[in-house]
Amino acid sequence: MAQCVQSVQELVQDSFTPMVAVLCSETAERMSRKNRLSFAELLRPFCRLTSEGHIRDPNNVLQSVKGLRISVNGLCPSLKPPSSTLTPAQRQVLHHIVLSSQPQEGAVSSISAGDYQLSFSGTTPWFEAYREAFLQTMPSSEHEFLNHYLACLLVVSSSETVPFEQFLKLSQEQHQIQHSGEYSSPKWFIPNTLKYYVLLHDVSQGDDHRAETVFEDMKQKYGSQGCYLLKINSRSEGPSDQDQMPDPWSQYLHKSYLHSPVSAPPPISVFFANSTKEHKRLTRFSALPQLSACDTSRRASDSITSGAPGGHGACLTLNDHDRIRQFIQEFTFRGLLPHVEKNIRQLNDQLVSRKGLSRSLFTATKKWFGGGKAPEKSVAEPKSTTGLLYPPEAPELQIRKMADLCFLVQHYELAYSCYHTAKKDFLSDQAMLYAAGALEMAAVSAFLQPGAPRPYPAHYMDTAIQTYKDTCRNMVLAERCTLLSVDILKSQGKYAEAATLLIKMTSEDSDLRSALLLEQAAHCFVNMKTPMVRKFAFHMILAGHRFSKAGQRRHALRCYCQAMQVYQDRGWSLAEDHINFTIGRQSFTLQQTEKAVDAFKVILEKESQQTATQQGAFLREYLYVFKVFYRHMALQSKLVFIKIK
């Protein structure tokens, strides 16, 4: 399999992050928009912590939290329930992600296998970009809590006449969104969502003394650990102030796929855009979630920033960057992590009380299932497609909620114990969607435990994938499960098993997904201890065919060219003819006429085993392509002559 930039541990931690919503007053949002950024966008590059955090588990054991990244998104409620499938807009964006990503120059791997000498792309950045974006599009679901919001930042400007009235208004608004039952999304982790109060101060225009006075009152009202004074905009905007400042926001806001040279991709605002008529209140939500937006708020914010010169962060200094980074750290260490720790303890106490246990769930599950023992080798097969839904207060869901909380703060041992317990309950109730989710995360938790006290239960993942696909008919969750399991297997050198999973996940419902997975399967075959070169070539051809059907002609051409290294001059003339013919057509479509001529020429030069009719078709293709190529060369020569003259 092609080498990935991220380790599997980094991939998992970046795919499942604590979710934090942002709700801003209009004045605070306008202050942030001076930098051509919403407040949520302003924070995004600084959301990975550089310091180590800590929490205590129910047994009062200190647990480290390293390299934590939080996901900060603007609060954008919707009346439309989340879909279990990708929308056409999401599919289109994923298409352009792959379309705009091509092999890196110099990133070529060479291997020798027998008498084969192969050169191919050592990395597949298009697959990694697709995987990252796909995992970010995962809709929230009732059967898991991993992408439900844990906290909400309430942001008010220090220039407000009565800041506390604005804080109260935002707090009531968040409460209504969460508890009124009017909105289907976003979903919230727990009823008592953490509210963190942020006073946003414009250094270049605001009154510093007043801001400090208001903040002192905030600490009295909300507690010193529940609020923060964030100072930004240390310089006034203007062309003269545009020094060489870093722009950490560009990688989050202006991905190359948003400006594809082949065809204009959809604006980022279509990601998760709702087709239903939204409540008129949505027009005031101007912060944008990652890879998503509320169209109404985006249009409103454009009018605010349209006159601002320069790029992102035009009003920010490096000191402002440090202040934002410090704010994220303070919020996480003094607000978010203590909130998570408290809720883990409360859930543990509730579960112990309900189940009549004499000790914590952690201790009990270790006794029941043997903390160091490998998971059992058999998992109940799915028997039913029942659409069982648990009430929010059901003990089974509380166990799953506790497991997800532990997983998000990297307490993988306790998370595994909870997932394992929940899995057995769900299977007993034949709640197959819930069971598949518990199996999936139990497997990932087992792999991520420090010191690997138990082997990776690949059979858990296999059953989860089968259940998602066949019983629940949810290809999005099946694909997520496959992507995670494949990377884990690859990290363990189990390329044959990874290739099998990838091939099983191909289907007729998505040519793009099938092409990407077939290409990864091909790389698995060639990276085995004894490279399976012919299987590599065969699956590259299959990938090229699916890339072509998906409209990804450059990737299709690359796949066929790499496969040709195996079939060339091996006596497989019919296979060579097919590959050269396809290379010729794909090259011609991409306006690479010289390469197309060369490919068709090879077919005609060799002694052919094709029928006379087929040879005639090859000749007609060659003559047509050569005619176009000749005209192109003649036109170029004429232009050069005119320029010289």
Structure description:
By secondary structure, the protein is of the alpha/beta class. The chain contains 23 helices and 9 strands. Strands 4-1-7-8-9 form a 5-stranded parallel sheet, with helices on both faces. Strands 2-3 form a two-stranded antiparallel sheet. Strands 5-6 form a two-stranded antiparallel ribbon. Helix 11 (361-369) packs across helix 13 (412-428), helix 20 packs antiparallel against helix 21 (573-589) and helix 22 runs antiparallel to helix 23 (612-644). The protein starts with 7 loop residues before the first helix and ends with a helix. This is Trafficking protein particle complex 8. It comes from Neogobius melanostomus.
Residue share in β-strands: 5-15%
Largest sheet: 5 strands, parallel
Number of helices: 23
Mean residue pLDDT: 83
